[in-house]
Amino acid sequence: MTLEALITVFGMAAVTYAIRVAGLLLADRLPSDGFVAHWVKHVPGAVLAALIAPAVFAVAPGRSLAEAFLPAETIAAVAVTLVYIATRNLFAAMAGGVLAVFLARMWLGA
Amino acid sequence: MHRPAPTAASQFWLGVTMFLPVAVSIASYGVVWGVLAGQKGLSVLEVLLMSGLVFAGSSQFVALDSWTPGALPVISIVVATAIVNLRMLLMSATLRPLVAGLSWPKALATMFFVSDEQWAMAMAQMRKGEGSVAFMLGTGVLSWVAWVGATLLGRVLGAFIDDPVKYGLDFAFTATFLALLLGMWKGRTDLVPWLVGALAALLTASMVEGKWYIIVGGIVGSLAGALADQWRARRDA
């Protein structure tokens, strides 16, 4: 293992743990009601939605919207939604999504 | 319904049991990450150290993007890690009531296990009035074992899997996050933050390189959600 790899890994670990701890230390300063509380409550959903959207539509700088449309991923996202609503099971939804994207890519020749 | 006070051990194992299906999805994209790590030239030891110490999947995927042995962009990888993981700040903040009874060292140590899935499940338990530190530790320890084990497995087996994308395994990540999001649905008040967050992320991703879209979408979407809540409260008042 090289020194640069070691520094990178320890750097990643240090900032990540610092963030995990900082939230707890700052928690006292975050109010429990009102605008800020509502804001904090909505963060996880908004972050997850933001994580997902560009993976379902492959947008990137300099790419047109027509190019960004990924039919296989979009079909698979619909499949995940339907399986999750039907089963309420995380693994079933994940497996359904992987299977759907595999089949859709094969079918679409992508 | 009256029930005896749950013991720490039973809470720990409840966490493990309830987390099992999630651990399977974590393990499946852990294998994918391990395979990709092998292709990027990470050694088995590097995989073990990164998965074991960083223990944050999305940021590890981002780090792989720019992993070039011999000329590692150290600063840029560490900064990208901080950006992607900044969301955990608000997660651990909301876990404050859960660890309120612990000593500081124990509370700080518990925070090592904060990650999307564990946090989502601990919050769901807290909403039902059943959350506990032991429960979260159960989910966290299983998650850590699944993540470290699966990434190592992927790294070792990587030589035999030519192209993870061919088998659709790259989508496991998105599918898991989508299912987690759907599980958070509380009602129509969630519509605004989710849609605005997704749109802001798409716009950002179409204009800015890198993973900024996660932070921008998260901040803009959650602000829009809070504004909508406030508007609704004023209208109904």
Walk me through what this model shows.
Chain A has helices spanning 3-26, 35-56, 65-68, 71-87, 90-108. The longest helix of chain A is centred in the first third of the chain and has 24 residues, at 3-26. Chain A contains five helices and no strands. In chain A, α4 packs antiparallel against α5 (90-108). Chain B is mainly alpha-helical. Chain B is built from eleven helices and no strands. Chain B is globular and about 60 Å long. The model of chain B has no long low-confidence stretch (mean pLDDT 87). The chains are: A mainly alpha (110), B mainly alpha (237). Chains A and B meet through α1, α2, α4 and α5 of A and α1, α2, α3, α4 and α5 of B.
User: Radius of gyration of chain A, rounded?
Assistant: 20 Å
Q: Outline of chain B, from the CA principal axes?
A: globular
Helicity level of chain B:
over 70%
Radius of gyration of chain B: 19 Å
Structural class estimated from helices and strands of chain A: mainly alpha
Distance between the termini of chain A: 38 Å
N- and C-termini, Cα separation of chain B: 35 Å
Poorly predicted spans of chain A: none
Query: What is the ordering of alpha helices and beta strands of chain A?
Result: HHHHH
Unreliable stretches of chain B (pLDDT < 50, length at least 5) are none
Number of helices of chain A: 5
Reading the helices and strands of chain B in chain order gives: HHHHHHHHHHH
Helicity of chain A, in percent? Answer: over 70%
Question: Assembly state here?
Answer: heterodimer
Count of alpha and pi helical runs of chain B: 11
The secondary-structure class of chain B comes to mainly alpha
Largest interface: A-B, 75 and 98 residues
The profile of the biggest β sheet of chain A is: none
- The count of strands of chain A amounts to 0
